[in-house]
Amino acid sequence: MPKLTIDGKEIEVAPGSTVLQACEEAGAEIPRFCYHERLSIAGNCRMCLVEMERSPKPIASCAMPAGDGMVIHTNTPQVKKAREGVLEFLLINHPLDCPICDQGGECDLQDETMAYGRGKNRFDENKRAVTEKNMGPLVKTIMTRCIHCTRCIRFSEEVAGTTELGAIYRGENMQITTFLEQAMESELQGNVIDLCPVGALTSKPYAFNARPWELAKTESIDVMDAVGSNIRIDTRGRQVMRILPRNHDDVNEEWISDKTRFAYDGLLKSRLDRPYVKKDGTLVEASWVEAFAAINTGLAGLDGTQIAGLVGDLNELEGMYAFRELLKGLGATRIEARQSGAAYDVSNRASYLFNSGIAGIEEADFCLLVGTNPRHEATIVNARILKSTRHRGLKVSNIGPAHDLTYPVEQAGDDAAILADILAGKHSLADRLQAAKRPMIIVGEGALARQDGAHILKAVHDIAETFGLITEDWNGFNVLPTAASRVGALDLGLVAPGGVRGILDDAKAGTVKAAFLLGVDEIDSSALQDCFTVYIGSHGDHGVRHADVVLPAAAYTEKSGLYINMEGRVQMGERANFPPGDAREDWTIFRALSDVLGKTLPFDSFDALRAALYKELPHLMDIDSLPKAAWGDFGEPGDIARGPIALPIHDFYQTNPIARASDTMAECSALKRSKGEATGTHG
């Protein structure tokens, strides 16, 4: 390990470290514009210049490997003069329109000019001007401000994998633009806003809406998919103004998907802010007392076998637990959370987890995708697979529909029966799995939602055991759910015989006479039109179409709660703002309703509710750790029918009520459709 002397302090660093990284380990602050720890090194801004003994001129510390015996000085007159010169040249053409720039207060150029600049500029030539670029509905461009750090170009190629951005012309005339100057298509494009060190790339939906010092900042968890991305919710008053990523190396690193970042405007649209009760075939406004009385009347004379509950995709654990306890008090046992119809087996926790861990993708050398499109179902996971293919040589094969996943994929065919062929050793993928040192399989809900989904689950289980995917220190069996609440609901045992389809069929036949829908908007609710239906949710989406009573609930930014991501990692989200009107948090609704129904729930506070939840599921107290589920047998033996696998998501931007209410997501979806890409609904 190389040893360096930095500002008189000797330090030892890991092999392959750069001088900049060594300086930071020594506690020296090194300014930079082009360097980013998750991107390749460009070395073109020269802001990170430091002095090295025996070097005739300052060196770019970001691009210089740390060597044994180096003596580095980071705060000499030569270094100070070099930094001042770099900033002076950058400001020759920078428009200095800070009062109207959305990056104001968060601008690296502002901060570093204050810290390292001369304070004045000796140049008075006319500044250059660059025509604006159309990058779509998400990223606003003012490219006159661009300082050519190329972070956005490197991100597009290396993390998003779409190679959409590039540079044209040379020198002072250089411009960053999309090829053919058309909108970007990546589902991760919003991250270039965070990467841009100046105001050249900013958020178009957020433009001119707020300044960072006006906003209250709350740490929370994203619910747009099952990844559990760590986010920061910025609010002003009761309104969410923007959503930004938080760093978590094992989950989302420092990236979030565009749906996570931009769907927040849907929190204000189509909101349920007061109860409704159906009278003469029409939903009319009502008080909470009237709504609860209507539920009490609707349930009169029914026993538990005639009552069922369905749970949606965006719910926190506390709300689902209170919902389950309320229905159990009514004698109901049919509570179902698998909106997608996937054949999860709750008898073994390993059967529905992403057991390798998201960061574990970087340890695998072969990955087999089965009935999943991770680019749409879990964008951050897809980015991690891309990273592993680029830097660690991961090879990927796919069983299912072919899609552009941003990395090379060997297409094995769209036929679920290939799994049986692998198990019998009759397919080349069997040899690939056998030869791999750390193979992994990722099974999507598209495969598990087929009629033979339980057989597919068993086949993949047997493949994992047969081809060495399960060892003492490695579990290569992974399921990729599409919903933030899915793993938590399965931990709570919210699975009913026959699944969602069985409940809907019985409701249509008249054997289920009352149904409670907790944020359920991804099913065909027409089967419930003759059934007494209570909808509890935040948005007036598909679930309210045949509801007899509607109870307004808080959205995910408006309540605290626990979420379990696809890995089984328990994470805590905090309330950032308050729900509108008469809307209330889910658990408070069920606690109040239980009094009216004469089945009072045994908790009067959020702390008491969480204590009851911890008592039943002690693993929930282990916050933010990757669990290791015990391996066992699961799935049902049986034949797998030959035929294609239908994927669960056809339109990335329209997968839940919040996204469907968002004007920004609607614009993105329309842009995709205009380019001839398949879109549709989720489910």
Give a verbal description of the structure.
Pfam families: Fer2_4, Fer4_NDSU1, Fer4_Nqo3, Molybdopterin, NADH-G_4Fe-4S_3, NADH_dhqG_C. It is an enzyme of class 7 (translocase). It catalyses: a quinone + NADH + 5 H(+)(in) = a quinol + NAD(+) + 4 H(+)(out). With 683 residues, this protein is an alpha/beta fold. Among the domains are: 73 residues, Ubiquitin-like (UB roll) (Roll); 205 residues, Rossmann fold, CATH 3.40.50.740; 132 residues, Dimethylsulfoxide Reductase, domain 2, CATH 3.40.228.10. 27% of the residues lie in helices and 17% in strands. It is built from 20 helices and 28 strands. The strands form eight sheets. It has a seven-stranded mixed β-sheet, sandwiched between helices. A five-stranded mixed β-sheet has the order 2-1-5-3-4, with helices on both faces. Helix 2 packs across helix 3 and helix 8 packs parallel to helix 17. The protein is globular. The protein starts with a strand and ends in a 9-residue tail after the last helix.
List keywords for this structure.
683 residues; alpha/beta; Ubiquitin-like (UB roll); Rossmann fold; Dimethylsulfoxide Reductase, domain 2; seven-stranded mixed beta sheet; five-stranded mixed beta sheet; 28 strands; globular; iron-sulfur; iron
* N- and C-termini, Cα separation: 53 Å
Question: What is the CATH-assigned architecture of one domain?
Answer: 3-Layer(aba) Sandwich
CATH topology of one domain: Rossmann fold
Biggest sheet statistics = 7 strands, mixed
Parts with pLDDT < 50 across at least 5 consecutive residues? 678-683
What is the CA-atom radius of gyration, in angstroms?
Answer: 27 Å
Q: What's the shape?
A: globular
Helix content: 25-40%
The CATH class assignment of one domain is Alpha Beta
- Backbone structural class: alpha/beta
